[in-house]
Amino acid sequence: MADSPLKKALGHIRVLDLTRVLAGPWCAQNLADLGADVIKIERPGAGDDTRHWGPPYLKDGEGRDTTEAAYYLAANRGKKSVTLDIATPAGQEIVRALARQSDVVLENYKVGQLKKYGLDYESLQREKPDLIYCSITGFGQNGPYAQRAGYDFIVQGMGGFMSVTGERDDLPGGGPQKAGVAISDLMTGMYATIAVMAALAHRDRTGAGQYIDMALLDVQVAMLANMNTNYLASGNPPTRWGNAHPNIVPYQTFATADGHIIVAVGNDGQYKKFVEAGGQPWLAVDERFATNPMRVRHRDTLVPLLADMVLTKSKQEWIDLLEAAGVPCGPINNLDEVFDNPQVQARGMRVDLPHPTGGMVKLVGSPIKMSATPPRYDAPPPLLGQHTQEVLGGLLGKSEAEIAALREKGVI
């Protein structure tokens, strides 16, 4: 019963994954976690670029580095790896054969690149009319930038994210700052996942497939959310505030005696409790600081006083004091602390899977929690070409001799 497709939300779906690096693989991993059969096509001898983006690498049972980079492991769980040279006619025919037996094709090649191989949406849709085909690029399939290569870092800048991220320009260290992870890639993978599942729902009702055009720049612009509408409503572009808030004080990070905390005071009562917990009740009665509008006006005077106060206690002392007082707060944890956190552990956010070369591979679980069809962790990220024989022989019905001939010619 554990292996029944009915226990997998997408157990009836096959995905042909022609993507590499992060945005596309992130989408494909989401679909795999939800039960889809994902076949990842990789270049013979090299594979996905991220396989080589190390160190760090997965270690084997004796503590030695394997060839599996941690970056690659982050986005490729639950897939089958097939090595295939799609620049060859034989490789192209195999892709077409796999597409005919798939529900979804994902690709992140440059605009027009797959058309010369006969692997674009129009070509494959003629052979499988109900195919869902999702293209992921930096700038989309049309517009003056369509032919440009898209890189997450550049898109974070172009899409406005870095104009609102980073310390204030008038403070030390001020200036634009990228996010600590590739957010436009990751969010594009998430939006692509939503689009694919919406297209599958539409196909279930109508029998029709469709084309999905995802662009990193579109996603980066969209995800600025209220910053966008603040600008559109006022005509004034928002600026950087670092870890502070333009309208609330104190609502920022503070250094403690042994780390950092976040204090998110939402009203004057919480502010009073905050300074009382720090042994500085006078800061709540001083007319310059008694109300939030006054605190905002006098932030440059108040914040240094609060910073000195917070430095007198440890991170955990402050968390205990402020939680008891009902003041919103939280630690700034490193990843050691994140994975030691009892709430993170209770939510099952780390999963350990057996790996062919690494013994066990430690991965981060899906945040999706579903009562009937929860995410599945049936397989670790695959070795390069691990499933070539299985897929070509089992799914496409090729004989061992045919597969050996393809291997001899360098097609697989």
Radius of gyration: 26 Å
Number of E strands: 13
Proportion of β residues? Answer: 15-25%
Order of the strands making up the biggest sheet: 5-2-1-6-7-8
Unreliable parts: none
Superfamily (CATH H level) name of the largest domain: Crotonobetainyl-coa:carnitine coa-transferase, domain 1
Task: Tell me the series of helices and strands, N- to C-terminal.
Answer: EHEEEHEHEHEHHEHHEEHHHHHEHHEEHH
Kindly list the characteristics that best describe this protein.
412 residues; formyl-coa transferase, domain 3; 2 domains; 37% helix
What is the fold's blueprint, element by element?
Blueprint: E1 14-18, H1 23-33, E2 37-42, E3 57-59, E4 65-69, H2 70-73, E5 79-83, H3 89-100, E6 104-107, H4 121-127, E7 132-137, H5 152-158, H6 183-206, E8 210-215, H7 216-222, H8 226-234, E9 251-255, E10 260-264, H9 268-277, H10 282-285, H11 292-297, H12 299-310, H13 315-325, E11 329-331, H14 335-340, H15 342-346, E12 350-355, E13 359-364, H16 388-395, H17 400-408
Helix pairs in contact: 1-6, 6-7, 9-13
Keywords: Transferase
Organism: Noviherbaspirillum autotrophicum
InterPro entries: CoA-transferase_III_domain (IPR050483), CoA-Trfase_fam_III (IPR003673), CoA-Trfase_III_dom3_sf (IPR044855), CoA-Trfase_III_dom_1_sf (IPR023606)
